[in-house]
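User: Predict the structure for this protein chain, please.
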Amino acid sequence: MLYRGLFVHCTKIAGETALYTKISDDKGREALYPDVLIKHDFREGALVDGAAFELAEEAFVAYPPHRIFFFGIAGDAPGPEVYAWLDEVTEFLREEIKAPLKFTEREEKAVENLAETYRFTVSMGRILRELMTYAKCAGRDILLLLSPYGRGGGSKQRGKEILDELRKKMAE
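Assistant: Here is the predicted structure, written as structure tokens:
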């Protein structure tokens, strides 16, 4: 279901409505993780469903991860609490689009310095910027996240390791 620029998928479940933060294939070997950067009161869960996983793969191609939502709906249709929350999400994203997230001058410099120091490729630089954008959305301190990586010459291999470390820190 498309909901004002969001990708929303609802699956009927027993129990209470849940927001899935992990969608796995039937075998549980592959998983996708929508980024839920906005506070909510829904129970979070994991969905293991081959058809939903295929749908999620397509959604991740067309939408940014923070605009993809998979709900398990208790009952036949989403209740007013789901629609009310989606209205809040939509309003938040609308404001985000009006005033795009900007790094401070110090944050921008820290991101650039890291990319230059460790000879990031263009692709690695984009990944770093995306990670730091998510960090900022989540209220994390970018300067604190990047401070352990200091200055000095570094290798591209070390740069890849740093990106992996940052991904892990963002998952905490």
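Residues 2-98 form one domain.
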